[in-house]
């Protein structure tokens, strides 16, 4: 459930938990070791963002398919209060369509979670 993965770290850890294979396992172990070393040696280090993780993943393993790419962007999409809501809705709907998600029952809860709390109350 998307609401279980609300932080970049939880999204990354969930994604990593679904990856397996000799080369992938080695890559995951190296990544985890790097992150642990950074935490120990650099007090200003922050866990990577979801978008940085995806860029790292694509840089290492190549581009992912378009449906997965759209799904990834949809998961990362957040409403920016500086933007117009209609622009956000268009972005959300376009990504949902590209991701192959067209069930309102699935989209509405996902859409609501991406909005600030005061806006959620109006839906």
Automatic annotation (TrEMBL):
Q: Which domain of life is it from?
A: Eukaryota
Q: Which protein, by its recorded name, is this?
A: Retrotransposon gag domain-containing protein
Q: Which organism is it from?
A: Obba rivulosa
């Amino acid at each position: 459930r998307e609401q279980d993965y609300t932080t970049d770290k939880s999204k990354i850890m969930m994604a990593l938990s679904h990856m397996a294979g000799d080369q992938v396992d080695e890559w995951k172990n190296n990544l985890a070791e790097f992150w642990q070393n950074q935490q120990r040696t650099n007090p200003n280090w922050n866990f990577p963002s979801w978008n940085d993780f995806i860029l790292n993943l694509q840089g290492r393993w190549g581009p992912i398919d378009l449906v997965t790419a759209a799904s990834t962007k949809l998961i990362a999409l957040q409403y920016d209060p500086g933007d117009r809501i209609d622009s956000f809705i268009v972005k959300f709907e376009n990504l949902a369509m590209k991701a192959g998600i067209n069930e309102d029952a699935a989209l509405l809860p996902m859409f609501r979670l991406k909005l600030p709390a005061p806006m959620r109350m109006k839906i």
